[in-house]
Please model this.
Amino acid sequence: MRQIVLREPGKFEKLEADPPRRGSDEALVRIRRIGVCGSDFKGFAGAHPAYSYPRVLGHEMSCEVMEAPANDHGIRAGDRCAIDPYLSCGKCRACRLDRPNCCEELRILGIQTDGGMQSFLSVPMSLLHKSKRLSFDQLALLEPLSVGAQAVQRSGVQRGEQVLVVGAGPIGLAVMQFASATGGVVRALEIQEQRRALVEKLGIEALASPDNKLADVVFDATGSPEAMENSFNYVAPGGRIVFAGLIKGRISFDDWQFHRREMTVLATRGNLRHFPRIIRMIEKGEIDPRPWITDRLELGEVPQRFQELPGRQTLVKAVIEVGEPD
Model:
């Protein structure tokens, strides 16, 4: 089968590998779509704290089930599924507290263990979420949607609260949609014109530069140290700031402002618990991530085209299509 390996930062390699053998509680799946995440670009550049090498990237995945054992999940050969990429141990303190996304031994497909940039993958049955109605594109984007859903849940946004989302990439767009669904009054701060236009299609006000209106909840979805630090300036007294993007390094802020306004700072990451709810929302037409997709490439084009994607001014979300194996 085809496999694209990030041998080291900045160096992809095309390989031919044997298809995996599934375990007794695993399904053999054919990868169909892979969403390219901002963290993948950082992993490619060696600038993400979680990636290890060599690595088959790809943690935003949809697939077709090829083989599955008898199971209680209703998964059968031929099903279209999203793959939850989070592998938790089930035993550590975080798992015992029912926070498996913070597992002390957490491994994420495509980051700490091999992911979707290959023809086939063997995955635990519990990680598959099927839908008869969603497309492979939609299913591949459940993972970034789950980051937005978790961020909004962590924030505790209440109906009528003023919400500012900094950054209108896929994570920012996901945050906006879930914050709006919760009843927040949402605005976005985004420097790129095309992304502002996409925000406005959602019926959300898009700002090109900061104004003087403070927000009850500020979400930073940029992964930019400067933007993350500036986000403290937009938080109203008693407000919250939620970091949905991350960096490899430190950020700083004005301690007096932080104390004077008695802010709360929260971190967030994806959470598999949201997958079933997100599937239902897409099936009902309440949200749809397909308008995010601006770029497509085939799996075999990754070594040549991947490094060009971050510099594209029009990029919102790139999707890798995985066709029939050679």
Observations:
- The chain has a mean pLDDT of 94.
- The chain is about 25% helix and 30% strand.
